[in-house]
Amino acid sequence: xxxxxxxxxxxxxxxxxxxxxxxxxxxxxxxxxxxxxxxxxxxxxxxxxxxxxxxxxxxxxxxxxxxxxxxxxxxxxxxxxxxxxxxxxxxxxxxxxxxxxxxxxxxxxxxxxxxxxxxxxxxxxxxxxxxxxxxxxxxxxxxxxxxxxxxxxxxxxxxxxxxxxxxxxxxxxxxxxxxxxxxxxxxxxxxxxxxxxxxxxxxxxxxxxxxxxxxxxxxxxxxxxxxxxxxxxxxxxxxxxxxxxxxxxxxxxxxxxxxxxxxxxxxxxxxxxxxxxxxxxxxxxxxxxxxxxxxxxxxxxxxxxxxxxxxxxxxxxxxxxxxxxxxxxxxxxxxxxxxxxxxxxxxxxxxxxxxxxxxxxxxxxxxxxxxxxxxxxxxxxxxxxxxxxxxxxxxxxxxxxxxxxxxxxxxxxxxxxxxxxxxxxxxxxxxxxxxxxxxxxxxxxxxxxxxxxxxxxxxxxxxxxxxxxxxxxxxxxxxxxxxxxxxxxxxxxxxxxxxxxxxxxxxxxxxxxxxxxxxxxxxxxxxxxxxxxxxxxxxxxxxxxxxxxxxxxxxxxxxxxxxxxxxxxxxxxxxxxxxxxxxxxxxxxxxxxxxxxxxxxxx
Amino acid sequence: xxxxxxxxxxxxxxxxxxxxxxxxxxxxxxxxxxxxxxxxxxxxxxxxxxxxxxxxxxxxxxxxxxxxxxxxxxxxxxxxxxxxxxxxxxxxxxxxxxxxxxxxxxxxxxxxxxxxxxxxxxxxxxxxxxxxxxxxxxxxxxxxxxxxxxxxxxxxxxxxxxxxxxxxxxxxxxxxxxxxxxxxxxxxxxxxxxxxxxxxxxxxxxxxxxxxxxxxxxxxxxxxxxxxxxxxxxxxxxxxxxxxxxxxxxxxxxxxxxxxxxxxxxxxxxxxxxxxxxxxxxxxxxxxxxxxxxxxxxxxxxxxxxxxxxxxxxxxxxxxxxxxxxxxxxxxxxxxxxxxxxxxxxxxxxxxxxxxxxxxxxxxxxxxxxxxxxxxxxxxxxxxxxxxxxxxxxxxxxxxxxxxxxxxxxxxxxxxxxxxxxxxxxxxxxxxxxxxxxxxxxxxxxxxxxxxxxxxxxxxxxxxxxxxxxxxxxxxxxxxxxxxxxxxxxxxxxxxxxxxxxxxxxxxxxxxxxxxxxxxxxxxxxxxxxxxxxxxxxxxxxxxxxxxxxxxxxxxxxxxxxxxxxxxxxxxxxxxxxxxxxxxxxxxxxxxxxxxxxxxxxx
Lengths: 603, 603
Prior knowledge:
Chains A, B: Keywords: Acetylation, Hydrolase. Chains A, B: Homotetramer. Chains A, B: Residues 347-425 form the STAS domain. The structure is a homodimer of 603-residue chains. Chain A has 603 residues and is of the alpha+beta class. Chain A has three domains: 4-308, 3-Layer(aba) Sandwich (Beta-lactamase), CATH 3.40.710; 315-449, 2-Layer Sandwich (Transcription Regulator spoIIAA); 460-600, Jelly Rolls (Sandwich). Helix content of chain A is 41%, strand content 18%. In chain A, strands 16, 17, 18, 19, 20 and 21 form a six-stranded antiparallel sheet that branches. In chain A, a hairpin with a 4-residue loop joins β6 and β7. In chain A, α1 packs antiparallel against α12, α2 (66-78) packs antiparallel against α10 and α5 (132-144) packs across α9. The first copy, chain A, is elongated, with a radius of gyration of 34 Å. The two termini of chain A are 32 Å apart.
């Protein structure tokens, strides 16, 4: 099925193709031979999906769209301060070939006008055996994700007819803004303007800027976020010359146009847009390019104000551990202690990006915890962008919580956030499953409030699953069981096995996991001494639904399938009591899952 | 516990307070009497949380920070086109009192310089018995969320000493940009500049702009999103006069400063920032205000480029209905049909904001579905911002899917999205619980591929829970049951009740719900003829965990607690078979919950 974004692009391409205003650039003879009807659009997302229509693979020279990329390379090479000393960041509101040098110093207003762009080019030096131009072309190619080349005919023609730029370069030399011979700078500049690109390339170059400098196709970090920030800031105010204000109001994205008819726009975090259509308006901007950018911005709500609308609440849900207990079987006294003190451990599940707004809401939630809370669990498994500000806030929160007598505990895939927070004050407890973090909380509460932690060893007769039975019955069942031991990591029950009896863990821990829908292994929970497994295979398919592995050395008592059959035949009363106990035990689990669903799904 | 954001603000407030550069504004005598050490900061989130430090409640006159708000009111009153005819949107790069009128027309460059601001004020007319100034003050007050007032002394002083503004107003009159008598316009303008605000107010005014025009404290929509977009666009390029470029590069938020020492910055979708400190730099901007904005932007990553970083994937998870079946008991043949054809119905769970990037990824997922998929379920319960572009894309997707022979089904709280999509092509099936949508899918597949839908009536003997028993045993159990009927909406089992037996639904449907952690009612699932309930109360607490209600007329057969006790005493073999069947049935449910957890939690 065709994506509605493709059909949308086809529709507006059709409509905007009817615009016949403007004329192709004619100052450079080699550029005059273009088809004014050529018209391509490409829209690339920050994860590298490209939607294209029309002449999106037709090549043209990049011209002034080269400026932000060379400026970015200069920033990356020399740092902001050194570049700022040569080129300011102020909008000039002038046309592209305006001279706009500061009185006295000769410093160009910004790197998007020719004077500033020439200066930026002059700052790129050869290195590592690569000429300055090789480095420029290499950067453009890294942005595009493919090796680009130069249209030599256009280059020769620009070199021959670029009188005004030649004048500008020498003027800049007179102010010592350009410090060396202007001739090779001019050559580099004209060459960079003559690099051949198509809409697809430009959309990827734009998406690389939108993606904080990382090319979405190659995954390569082409520019640091600091340089990207600077480049897009300057493009925002000065990318469209004397159209800047109207462009920001009607398109609302940093943009850049070139006289060959290309135009590029960047919505940080979302998309890169490129259009190609040679006829230009009086400002030197592609008529159809501008119309397309305005139309797509409006229809797709890409204006920076609209695109950043509110409401990303980072907190998915928050609840006391009593609401979704670990499921570990406790003694009656311990269960009472936990019921009474469960509000002292709070789980906060986060969601989405942790940029400022998200991190702030986490800070607010944690800061507002009642003094009675002693353990705060942050479940970070669903968060995607953990910004530096979020890490700094978490570090500060961790310290402040510790001072208030509350421990921070994390649930995360790989312990990396815990490691980042660990610098001061020792390691932050980190678990890969929520149930393990909850178990940790419960044990903390039991230590403080006098219940018992999970004992290392639980005899079958003390198993909560058999609690409804008297001790004599439990002993009678135990006499029908077989003892087994397993080493760390050993698989005890594998997914797909037929029912093989009920396993009572008497010592150690096991973890159960299940294949996810896309077949990664999903860890479900950890079971410890006193708990049972294996009954799951009694379900609809009569097959084991999870794989159970030993975590450390494990001892179990197995009430096998044959033992159960024999029990039913010889001691129906005890068999009845067993099945009744197992039913009850199963419903204890159903109940637990229901509780977990209830805290997650609100309607 | 103190929020780390408060302690952070205290720290930078301390540091920046040491900056002693600049001098308070002295042109207006009534404004000269200020304490140069006054220094307040307020940071407001789009949901109305305000962090303040220092002299954040000290009042000062709003001065030029009034400009974006009056401009916004003019846009709201007259629309962009009429306002644009009077005031352009181009950056002037000039200082605040620059004349900057277009040659020939006299049109001011933008509404942030005095000429443009005077023009914007002239566009506000009295209406509904309110004078023009009352309307301006009313708008400012609505932005601040409290009634603001005017410092009459400053007003009188400005009126007396504002020669340059008076000259500007008459110049604008000469060009017919101001169309009426300039005197009352000047009076309104000086009055609007003399409105008293504090940092708290300004931060809320900024947060209202950040929040798409809705005041986060009062909930009132003060300005439409179109006007907000325009105001913030102009502030982005022209809010800081000749500092615009440096401001965007180093702060990266639309901002506005006033000569009384106030400064305001807006990060769309996230925060509003306000600072007050009277000493000004050469551009008329508060020295500490600028330093604070730069510092907070850097530390909190509020620059528009950084604040919009990538990665908000809207798709939480996607799976075939076979992976999380509805849980409705089917005949063996129907179950086979569903197992074989479950891949034809796909569930896609969405998450977070559906702005362009999110909507695009949904479009991509739906467009890329294999041709074999006949029903696509979008679970929208976790999405927060459903932009117009998302609605338009969903509408287009729905049509395109229909043409490709695939039906779109929604899971959403209230059916409102379904209603929005319904315009063409009839209603879109919409359910408030995922399990209902999955049941719908299963029924569609059974219709197409020859299984049976859920029958209206299922005798106890055909209940899947009793499937392991022979017919004679099932009949023997049935003879111990009592028939009951319920009307639509009637509560059959209420949460907290003790175990009262097992209910077999023989006709109709029931829904089960449970109180959520914050005590909203959470609907868990729907059970239909053939299914059982009531056994849940066998769990740990021996109490009913859910409330079960009739959906339409319902008939059940109840195997009561007494009947079970009698059965155990008189027919232990049958009792054993019953409990064994119930255990199996319980594990079928555990299994289902496990599957659901597995598709949701990846590690």
